[in-house]
Amino acid sequence: MKITFLLHNAYAIGGTVRSTLNLAGTLAARHEVEIVSMFRTAERPLLGVSGKVRLVPLVDERTDSASYDGGHELMSRPSAVVPPTEVLAHRYTALVDERLRAFLDTTDADVVIATRPALVVFLAGHGSVGVSGPSRRRPLLIGQEHLSYDNHVPGVRAAQNEAIGRLDAFVTVSARDAADHRRRLPGLRTRITNIANAAPRPKAEPSDLRASLVVAAGRLFPVKRYDLLIEAFAKVATERPEWRLRIYGQGPERAALRTAIDRLGLNDHVFLMGPHATLETEWAKASVAAVSSEWESFGMTILEAMHAGVPVVATDCPHGPGEIITDGSDGLLVPPGDPDALAAGLLRLIDDTDLRRRLGTAARATVQRYAPRAIAAEYEQLIAELREARTPAAVRLTRRVRRGLGALWPRGAGDAGASVSASADGATRSKPRGAAGPVQPTPVDAAAASGGAPAQGAKPRPLRPKADCRVDAAGGVRISVGASGVPGAAGRGVVLVLRRRHGDDEFRVPLERESADDPKSPWTTTLSRADLTLAEGRWDLHVERAADGTRRRLRAGLVEQRGLLSAAAEIAKAEGTGPEVRGADGSSPVAWWIPYATKDGYLALRTFHRTTHAEVTALPVGEGAMAVEGVLYGAELGDGAALVGVARGEDVAGFEAPVTTAGGLDERTFQARLTSLPEPAGPDKTVWDLFLRPTAAAEPIRLGRLFGDIVDRKDTDKYPAVALDTAADASPQTPEAPEARFFFTVTNDLAVSLS
């Protein structure tokens, strides 16, 4: 059976994209499956697509592509089909109309599934003709609702309601929403039912629930009520200041949420992380998950958190959370719109480790109901029932007779020159010998297929190395390179090559089979800070085949950084001098490594290597003042300790501010307060890089935030501007008081700007 999904943009990140790719990949194990993406915005999908699924983009929006459609004359004309009030109506043009209509008029799919209102409307109006013309009935037409009945503007709601009546089935993701549709659309012959989204088991290790971290994820839209979550977390931070909240996602509410964080002084507690393609690694870092929505059509993030063994505190909003979570059993439900109730739910799990673990364990059992195979089976059952319902009675009788007589004749005893398959309406289509069918594997040399040595005289196949990566609790980085990506490696093996970007430094580390007896096992090594000294910078990872010296850059698979949080927590609790690694010369530099995937999908290592280091732990900002709090590693604080500002530019003065220590057992902890800055050089922004001078005679030490799992702090650790006194306050050229702001540089070091 051939199944086609119509998707807005398969190259983006979102709940509908993720759930469609999950379902399509599972169905592709038994059927021919394709995804028709209205738009192509990237070279490859940001989320993984099964190799068995065919991806068909209609309109290319990549400006650097040879097939870019931006200049097509039809791109300037709006769609004649899509409701103008559809939130993405501006993306749908006459060119989309033309190409989608052409596709639907010629498709040989047995089933076509539309995944958003614009596509449901289009499918209902243009999905009635197949490749065989009038002699073949149209494919089954199925619409999906990934929101809910009440969450569409009137124009979209009316257009989709009218379209539903021309479909064979309409599928919502919650039972309550299906009931709403049936109640409000009485008399329709269309089958209206609900099938949940599939949630595949993640490859990442589940959370150990040890980190002081709450995670939320979703689009930054008003309906998600992240403003409510931030308000609730202000109460959490007051009682449990060591806990942090990370919000993953992008959307129009980002600026408003940033303002709320600034207003509540939560800049050291709440972080907007931006979009993330592989959220499973981020859920594995969390100890509690939070959902604050005023409505949820389903709740994919709830299932993803449950898979990681992370208990969820969710608002009991329509429709999804209450259908997934059993309150007090595998998560907590709180009233929607109530920040106090949400804060209480979070604190209940934060304060009760045993409850957190019990609910997390139960959550992993609950989520098995949403396994992809189970959800795919529900769709297969729905399709089978729809096909049966529209199959003529005579054909149904013939089928029953055939089934009754099937045992009397050997299977496959018919014409050897043709096979027969059933179409969506129960009619049969002959498929002549040689017609497209299931792809059969091509015989290959067994050694080559398993990554072993090629046949004698044969040219080794190209390297396409891809590696998963996991950080252990000691900060060691385990690299696991898939055998299929390094063919011809048996015998002389492969080497991991680390090259420092913008430099000539290179290290070579042999890779070994995880299992010497299994040719399909990965090639692995663990990079340890105790064994390897890497200069500060960014290191790109390559794989080199020893047999012929071929080298290729290593693509990133799953990058699991959870161990960095454990390692950082141990550093914070330690009474010594921090994450030291004894060097060959007897020195003990501060070293920290963060593996990450680059924007173009390669595996890299961000390394920090310093003789001494001043780690910034907090940056309190208040009325007319700003402060730096931190911990010193590799040196001792003494008389004359000061915060030193070194200006960028020759015409600006530097500054110093006194440093105080916490005293007592931990004299590494320091604080410095700023209430004024030197006069700026001009109207442009003035910047000072910040250092800690441990004693009056010591060399200044760079201030930065290195420890943890964040590669680029400048993107996540943001601070508000504050008006400080300067010598320029009374100048007629500066009628408004200059504003100072802390920020992290591209090297995760601390600076302050004045503008």
UniProtKB/TrEMBL annotation:
Residues 207-365 form the Glycosyl transferase family domain. InterPro entries: Glyco_trans_1 (IPR001296). Residues 413-467 are annotated as: Disordered. Keywords: Glycosyltransferase, Transferase. The keyword Glycoprotein does not apply. It holds the Pfam family Glycos_transf_1. Residues 413-427, 446-458 have a biased composition (Low complexity). One of its GO terms (molecular function) is glycosyltransferase activity. Coiled coil: none annotated. This is D-inositol 3-phosphate glycosyltransferase.
